[in-house]
User: Which sequence fits this backbone?
């Protein structure tokens, strides 16, 4: 018989304990978590500490290429990886709406566990809260990540320098386009899988290939490639010049955008990063990116003017200034 | 004019950036957070690492003695403190329902910041997601904590020994009783403030006074004092004998329980801990607890039999076995 989450599962009593054992302890299979104390205890780490957190409210929770659990682990691991950190451990807080099928929760926990295993990272602590029917939408997750930075590694917009090269690790916008199609509100069919995935190996490869020439890495999530670049331009005070023709966009994504009047530059990815690297290492880094994703490409460079702006050079020789969108193109894509 | 949260505030575009600046960066005032990179970077720490996370869905969000922001910071700091760790940094993920007043969000952020300052802990990273009206209930928070454990410190149920003394740091059940009254569904008035508060100084005092004689500390949150003790009994395989008359319960809490048929032993506290300490340090630890809260008391001891059970010796000479409740007494108390 299908069992569903009740308010009693969030009470802290026997049903909470059983749910935690049956679903989370079993899936995450971690000694620190199994102790069920107030905090998980991990061995001392050396290096600077990286901390990150993200909430996940994606709708639908399962989509071609992923689900909310995989998305949460990828998102958190990627945030550590693009900071140049080695991810060590994650924690997860679940906010569950009364009525969710226990089997779905179990599937999400397994998906989280599988993705964490793939990244070589532990899920060491968790929490479960249940809200009344109508006060949630099935399941929300909030994951946090703890990682360690090798000595002296510092990435960020502040390190951008005129002449640096801008690279993207693969075709853009596929996550948001896939979510859009998965909602089934469009009378439009396309075989489109989210790019939801881990960027840890990619980051390690880029840092190994580019060394100190790697200025900044950022995953292009909410707001897409354009938002990352606008934030870089604003934070560095430099200009970013992009060649539109060089930016990889799959035909199906371009078609969805065409139909709906969306701009692929602003569509969220969940497994793509932008790397800004010095000119002398650009070729090596580009080659490294292309070994894991053949669509990886060099898309532009850092320039002095216009200061603080992103300028797109269009195929037909025009120039368009990119800016942050006021709002987004689609709610609840992650 | 009162401004409200819209879906665009969760889009990752300009409105998200403005909200984060205006509400969170301003309130939390932390260099690591201000950089707005994917991860916050902190200096290396020495000692074992403690990690914890909790979701907060309390209803109402403001109650006598606290609010959801204070509750979240206290809960996370306390989880680190009872593990014997020194809290270093917190992260916070907000899941906001469309329509929430920006002024309320600002008040919550300020409350978090003030409580974190009081604890001497930084809020270094955050995330904001917005869900459609009807898919949430105003505001949910998920906080995570990172702390450091002094070398060799290990607390936990596994260290319980026959003859140990059980202490509680103050009167119990006040948080859940205050939430119950704050919902206004009872035709019952009582001046009752939640015990929501920081336990960090209390833990430091207990550990200084009791040293290695401190076996285990745990804050009594969801499920109350009884649930903590049942978990201790099960995890240690020892018995816990409690003297009912020694357990501090305020008359107003007792009256609420009497009226509604609730058991104060199972009511959540948010600023109370149970300490299990060796007999030889019990007096010193009790004296230390009483300096911060005069109602702190010695309430029982660890015994060999009945193994794995908690037995309450009632005022009239009876004995009652305490067990985990199947569900809770009240949903959404934290």
Assistant:
């Amino acid at each position: 018989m299908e069992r569903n989450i009740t308010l009693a599962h969030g009470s802290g009593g026997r049903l909470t304990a059983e749910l935690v054992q049956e679903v989370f302890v079993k899936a995450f299979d971690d000694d620190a978590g199994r102790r069920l104390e107030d905090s998980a205890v991990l061995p001392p780490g050396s290096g600077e500490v990286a901390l990150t957190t993200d909430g996940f409210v994606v709708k639908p929770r399962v989509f071609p290429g992923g689900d909310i659990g995989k998305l949460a682990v990828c998102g958190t691991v990627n945030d550590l990886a693009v900071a140049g950190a080695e991810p060590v451990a994650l924690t997860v807080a679940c906010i569950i709406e009364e009525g969710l099928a226990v089997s779905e929760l179990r599937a999400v926990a397994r998906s989280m566990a599988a993705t964490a295993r793939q990244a070589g990272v532990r899920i060491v602590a968790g929490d479960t809260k249940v809200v009344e029917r109508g006060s949630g939408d099935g399941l929300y997750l909030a994951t946090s990540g703890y990682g360690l930075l090798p000595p002296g590694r510092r990435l960020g917009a502040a390190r951008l320098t005129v002449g640096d090269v801008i690279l993207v690790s693969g075709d853009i916008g596929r996550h948001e386009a896939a979510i859009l199609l998965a909602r089934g509100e469009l009378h439009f069919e396309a075989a489109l899988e989210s790019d939801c995935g881990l960027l840890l190996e990619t980051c390690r490869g880029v840092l190994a290939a580019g060394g100190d020439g790697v200025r900044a890495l950022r995953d292009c999530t909410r707001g897409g490639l354009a938002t990352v670049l606008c934030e870089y331009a604003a934070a560095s005070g430099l200009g970013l010049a992009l060649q539109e023709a060089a930016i990889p966009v799959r035909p199906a994504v371009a078609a969805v955008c065409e139909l709906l009047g969306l701009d692929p530059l602003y569509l969220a990815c969940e497994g793509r990063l932008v790397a800004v690297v010095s000119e002398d290492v650009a070729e090596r880094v580009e080659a490294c990116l292309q070994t894991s994703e053949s669509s990886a490409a060099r898309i532009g460079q850092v320039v002095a003017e216009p200061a603080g702006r992103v300028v797109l050079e269009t195929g037909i020789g025009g120039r368009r200034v990119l800016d942050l969108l006021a709002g987004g193109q689609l709610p609840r894509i992650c």
Observations:
- Chain A touches chain B through 91 residues (CB under 8 Å).
